[in-house]
Design brief:
Chain B: It comes from Acuticoccus sediminis. Chain B: It holds the Pfam family Fer2_2. Chain B: GO terms for molecular function: 2 iron, 2 sulfur cluster binding; metal ion binding; oxidoreductase activity. Chain B: Residues 2-78 form the 2Fe-2S ferredoxin-type domain. Chain B: This is Carbon monoxide dehydrogenase. The structure holds two protein chains of two kinds. In chain A, the strands form seven sheets. A seven-stranded mixed beta sheet of chain A has the order 3-5-1-12-9-10-11, with helices on both faces. The longest helix of chain A is centred in the last third of the chain and has 27 residues, at 548-574. Chain A has 19 helices and 28 strands. Chain A is globular. Chain A is of the alpha+beta class. Chain A folds into three domains: 18-139 and 200-253 and 258-290, Aldehyde Oxidoreductase, domain 3 (Alpha-Beta Complex); 295-466 and 631-780, Aldehyde Oxidoreductase, domain 4 (2-Layer Sandwich), CATH 3.30.365.10; 482-627, Aldehyde Oxidoreductase, domain 4, CATH 3.30.365. Chain B is of the alpha+beta class. Helices cover 37% and strands 15% of the residues of chain B. Chain B contains five helices and five strands, in the order ββαβββαααα. In chain B, strands 2-1-5-3-4 form a five-stranded mixed beta sheet, covered by helices on one side. In chain B, strand 1 (2-8) and strand 2 (11-17) form a beta hairpin. In chain B, helix 2 (86-93) runs antiparallel to helix 5 (141-163) and helix 3 (103-116) crosses helix 5 (141-163). The radius of gyration of chain B is 16 Å and the shape is globular. Chain B starts with a strand and ends with a helix. Classes of the chains: A alpha+beta, B alpha+beta. The interface between A and B is large, with 59 and 57 residues. Bound molecules: FE2/S2 (inorganic) cluster (2 copies).
Chain lengths: 786, 164
């Protein structure tokens, strides 16, 4: 492999610019003549827009223009869409309501834009935005989405019962039959709290229109610039695809929130053309809280059937998923195909039935957030397992072990066909890592100090690298989910890798270069990664769902195959050998069993001088691959969390946390560990701290870092990590993906640990000290009555 | 409008700015020092942290006019030529960054933490001192390691300088 190949702990190539302040994020783009845009946003969750009078604003210093929703409609710019069509169980299509860039008639969530002010400076635009006179007629709002049917209607005429889709998966009759003959039934009801992704870089867009060429350039904070260009051109009519360049430069985190195309990007493209100058908009943090797509937000009732031997025989799930005021780009896929398909967890469950009701409410649109559907599924499955173990008076480890899948491939009743992993092995390693044998002594020691200690488990599975295109197409996806890669070998032997994936913290510049270094034995410093610009890379689907490794990396591997084959042909020709006898090692092409060899760069130069190539061969060394995997990949892991709860204050401290994952082959352990750390922080954040709160009128009460509890350094422990590498048989690198694991596996581990510590199962996320303290008090009630 | 005179990364700057111009705006928009980032509007995230006269300050919270006469160091001014500051090196070695957006603020804060704790740093102290800086990517695990390692290097560096 060499010091830099697959499996090496190489420090990152991209760090040089970030640690010196030389990163180039969208807000760092300053074009000549650039002006600033600020949006006027609704203060109401639901209101009729009676009138908008921009005249006073237009007189303010520095103001260039004020744009309202009708202007955008008149310009022929289309509505925003949801790109994944699903059907209700009765066969009717989901009810997608019109989603205007700025709705001229009605606003449906706090923060929805109604007008855009363009001024010389941002400060001037902010002042003028205050002066835009909007008259609203406030209406009652629906925020209690669990009671969607009795609330005010969000989209009259489209969904009069606020139901977008009443969707199902699995065999209801067979599942009911399993319950009819069950020895034990365990019931649970829970809420998966609503979160804000909170990438540290706020969303931003800079649009520039070149009149001479009728061409628009958009710099934007996007996880998938090509899909943005496709959607902006094909559906929103912002510009023709070949006249639109989308650049996603350095992007400061996404976690899902930057997958989507938002009204502001569309408005900036329109405005740049209208005012004839580059237009920049950058969200402030409160705008980000109000308008970045939120995540999660489910309420669920479920029951699990067991036979007399505590083997699971059935699982029945009823979920209501809030999608907010409008259907965001992939919102319909998250609580359906990305959620219910993972309800089998790591367990052999013969019968599963899930019913998911997708509903509207007067809240910010909800879409995929780190893990997207899989955290919701895992939280439900793992909370149910723990509850069941307690109900049976059994060890949660034993209950899991009894039900683990051990034969692969394994077909679940909910579409997925799992590739090999080793669930017992993961549990074994996790128990060793946390020193489970020492736990009773640690617990006793805590008790001596008057503290409550608990331990909680979570054995998750997820589906990464969503694919293949044909399968997702049959399930309603509007796009294919392959990935492209182009390998350009220069005459001097340096290599450029063009990828359709996008890195916003995932370290592609390093790990992709490692894949190339591994293959050819060239130094990583001779490899550069090009991504994030639709003028440089022809097409790609971007980065989310941990697809960069399995799908993006797979595409690179496939393109490298082609480069390797051609390089070998050239080398064989030059050395008068058989191509089958050429081996590439340490940057040299050698004839096996002889001392004949050529350096990598000599072969590359020969490809370009073309003085002596095999008969009929085209000069050059550049190959492309469009790789469409045969299946998802299935990373899995066991997390164990040990907490100490102070019964007097309800404060939970995580004293030990171990995560043992099977990510298949690991390209760079340092990078993978970093991904896990970040995911764990988000998962623990969800369990202990984070949550959006809307009041009854639909005001977002958590719209700043003063109100929304982001995990900070002293809220978190250091983590203990370990891995098991069961290679994925279905992709060229054997990788599975690691980006979401932490966020998926952590919440149930934490809540299971706290409920174990305090002796009651009734605890909802986020488990704030107040909630935990109240839960402790509730367990003491019978004593008080004594 | 105010006349603001500053030393920024060792360079003397004299600018006339509107009274409400924040230091971070002056740095980013007037001086092109875009390494200092804005992550929030409530002085909570620390992405904008710079040093003013040697102390870490959130540059989104001070007016440019207010700090006239001061010496400001931003992330762009931390390295000595091509030689990275030990804190920068440590963030790279320990993978203390992913998207890199919080990183300039984290590094500037890290240097300040070490400077204020000549007695040495343990994990609990580092975590407590980092409360004003948010990172969404790294889970802090490696940032804490990086600061601890840099503290050692900075001390060793200081000793070797003293010995010269
Ligand atoms: S931008 Fe200054 S603290 Fe957030
Ligand atoms: S590295 Fe992305 S926010 Fe810290």
């Amino acid at each position: 492999m060499g010091a830099e190949g697959i499996g090496a702990r190489v420090v990152r190539k991209e760090d040089g610019r970030f640690i010196t302040g030389a990163g180039q994020y969208t807000d760092d783009v300053f074009e000549r003549q650039m002006c600033a845009a600020v949006f006027v946003r609704s203060p109401h969750a639901h209101a009729k827009v009676v009138s908008i009078d921009p005249s006073a604003a237009k007189e303010m210093p520095g103001v260039i223009d004020v744009i309202v929703g009708q202007d955008i409609i008149d310009a022929g710019i289309g509505n925003l869409i949801c790109g994944w069509a699903i059907q209700s169980k009765d066969g009717t299509p989901m009810k997608m309501a019109p989603y205007n860039v700025m709705d001229p008639g009605t606003v449906r969530y706090v923060g929805q834009p109604v007008a855009m002010v363009i001024a010389e400076t941002r400060a001037e635009a902010e002042d003028a935005a205050e002066a835009v006179d909007v008259e609203y007629d406030p209406q009652p709002a629906l925020t209690d989405f669990a009671n969607y049917a009795s609330g005010p209607v969000v989209h009259p005429g489209t969904a009069d019962d606020n139901m977008i889709c009443d969707w199902q998966l699995g065999d209801e009759a067979a599942t009911d039959a399993a319950f009819a003959s069950a020895a034990h039934v365990v019931e649970i009801s829970l809420r998966n709290n609503r979160l804000v992704p909170n990438a540290m870089e706020p969303r931003s867009a800079v649009a520039q229109f070149n009149r001479a060429e009728d061409h628009t350039t958009l710099w934007t904070t996007s996880q998938n610039p090509h899909v943005a260009r496709l959607v902006l051109s094909a559906f929103y009519n912002v510009a023709p695809e070949h006249k639109l360049r989308v650049i996603a430069p350095d992007v400061g985190g996404g976690f899902g929130s930057k997958i989507y195309i938002y009204p502001e990007e569309i408005a900036c493209c329109y405005a740049a053309k209208r005012v004839g100058r580059p237009v920049k908009w950058t969200a402030d943090r409160t705008e980000a809280f109000m308008t970045d797509a939120h995540g999660r937000d489910h309420v669920t009732k479920a029951k699990m059937a067991f036979d007399a031997d505590h083997r699971i025989t059935g699982f029945k799930v009823d979920t209501i998923a809030n999608l907010g005021a409008y259907m965001s780009l992939f919102s319909s896929a998250t609580p359906t195909y990305l959620y219910a398909t993972l309800l089998s967890g790591q367990y052999d469950i013969p019968n599963i039935y899930a019913n998911v009701k997708l509903v509207y409410s007067h809240t910010t649109p909800v879409d995929a957030y780190r893990g997207a559907g899989r955290p919701e599924a895992t939280f439900l499955v793992e909370r149910t397992m723990e509850t069941a173990a307690r109900q049976f008076g059994m060890s949660p480890i034993e209950l899991r072990r009894k039900n683990f899948i051990t034969q692969f491939p394994h077909q679940t009743p909910v579409l997925m066909n799992y590739d090999p992993s080793d669930f017992h092995g993961l549990m074994d390693k996790a128990l060793a890592a946390i020193d489970f044998d020492g736990y009773p002594a640690r617990k006793a020691e805590s008790e001596r100090r008057g503290m409550l200690r608990g331990i909680g488990f979570s054995s998750y599975i997820e589906a990464c690298g969503i694919a293949p295109s044909q399968a997702v197409g049959s399930l309603g996806a509007g796009v294919g989910l392959w990935e492209s890669a182009e390998i350009r070998v220069n005459p001097v032997g340096t290599i450029e890798v063009l990828s359709g994936c996008h890195s916003h913290g995932q370290s592609h510049e390093t790990t992709y270069a490692q894949i190339v270094a591994h293959r050819f034995g060239v130094p990583m410093s001779n490899v550069s990664i090009v991504h994030g610009d639709t003028d440089k890379v022809q097409f790609g689907m971007g980065t989310y769902g941990s697809r960069s490794g399995p799908v993006g990396g797979g595409a690179i591997a496939k393109a490298l195959d082609k480069v390797e084959a051609k390089a070998k042909l050239i080398a064989a020709h030059l050395m008068e050998a058989d191509a089958g006898d050429i081996e590439i090692e340490g940057g040299e092409l050698k004839v096996a069993g002889t001392d004949k060899k050529l350096a990598w760069h000599e072969v590359c130069l020969a490809a370009y001088t073309a003085h002596n190539l095999p008969e009929g061969m085209e000069p050059g060394l550049k190959e492309t691959s469009f790789y469409d995997p045969a299946n998802f990949t299935f990373p899995a892991g066991t997390f164990i969390c040990e907490v100490e709860v102070d019964p007097n204050t309800g404060v939970t401290t995580i004293v030990n946390f171990v995560a043992v994952d099977d990510f298949g082959i690991i390209i760079n352990p340092m990078v993978v560990e970093g991904q896990v750390h970040g995911g764990l922080a988000q998962g623990i954040g969800q369990a202990l701290l984070e949550g959006c709160v809307y009041d009854d009128e639909g005001q977002l009460l958590t719209a700043s870092y003063m109100d929304y509890a982001m995990p900070r350094a002293d809220d978190l422990p250091s983590f203990g990590l370990d891995h098991l590498e069961v290679p994925n048989p279905n992709n060229p690198l054997g990788v599975k993906g690691c980006g979401e694991a932490g966020a998926i596996g952590a919440p149930p581990a934490v809540i299971n640990a706290i409920t174990d510590a305090i002796g009651t199962n009734d605890l909802q996320m986020p488990a704030t000290p107040e909630k935990v303290w109240r839960a402790i008090q509730s367990t003491k009630m019978p004593m008080a009555a004594e | 409008m105010s006349e603001v005179k500053l030393t920024v990364n060792g360079r003397n700057i004299s600018k006339s700015v509107s009274d409400r111009t924040l230091l971070v705006e002056l740095l980013r928009e007037e001086l092109g020092l875009t390494g200092t980032h804005v992550g929030c509007d409530t002085s909570q995230c620390g992405a904008c942290t710079v040093h003013i006269d040697g102390n870490a300050v959130k540059s989104c919270t001070v007016l440019a006019a207010q700090v006239s006469g001061s010496s400001v160091t931003t992330i762009e001014g931390l390295a000595k030529g091509d030689t990275l500051h030990p804190m920068q090196e440590a963030f790279r070695t320990h993978h203390g960054l992913q998207c890199g957006f919080c990183t300039p603020g984290m590094i500037m804060m890290g240097v300040d933490i070490v400077n204020r704790h000549p007695e040495g740093l343990d994990e609990t102290t580092i975590r407590k001192e980092l409360e004003g800086n948010i990172c969404r990517c790294t889970g802090y695990h490696n940032i804490v390691k990086a600061i601890a390692a840099a503290a050692e290097d900075m001390r060793a560096g200081a000793t070797s300088l003293a010995a010269e």
